[in-house]
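Hey L., structure's done. Input below.
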Amino acid sequence: VIKKLQQPEIQSIRLIVKNKNKLLKRFLKLLPNVIAGGGKVYNKKGKVLFIYRNGKWDLPKGKAESKETIKETALREVAEETGVRGLKITKPLETTYHIFKRYGKNRIKITYWFEMKTDFKGGLLPQTEEGITKVDWVDKQDIIEKLENSFGNIKELLHA
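Output:
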C-alpha cells in the first residue's frame, strides 16, 4: 500500500479490512508517527470554522509540542491557525490517520480531534506561514460545497 501511494496518479487509498485495529497497529509500527490535535469549532450561530491551506479546505490542526497534552495542542493550534480565541472543548471526536511524505520519508499523522465552541466575534487571521490563505465560518448548508475540495478524513468528521 505504501509503495502504491508513491505513484503520482494515486491520490488516496481506502482500505476495507475485517480487523482494522490489527492493520492500524502494523502501519503505526512501520512508519514514524506524528501526533497532532485539531478542532471542529462552532460559533454561536452554529457555523463551523474552516481553513484553506495548500488548495484544500480543511479544519485547523497541528503538531503537538513536547510536554503538551493533546487537548492543549488542539486549542493552541486552532487559535494559532485562525486567530479565534475563547475556545472550549465540548467533546472528543474520532481520531484520524493519514500517511504523508516529509523529507523524502513516509510518516503517519495521528490527529486527535475535538468538538469546540467559542463566543469569539473578532476578525479571523490566517496563519500564512503555515500555508493558510483563508479562514471562514461556514453555514451548515455551505459545508457540502467546501467538502468537494477537502480531504476524506475531514469529510468523515463533518458527517459525524
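The chain has a mean pLDDT of 90. The longest strand covers residues 88-102.

-- N.
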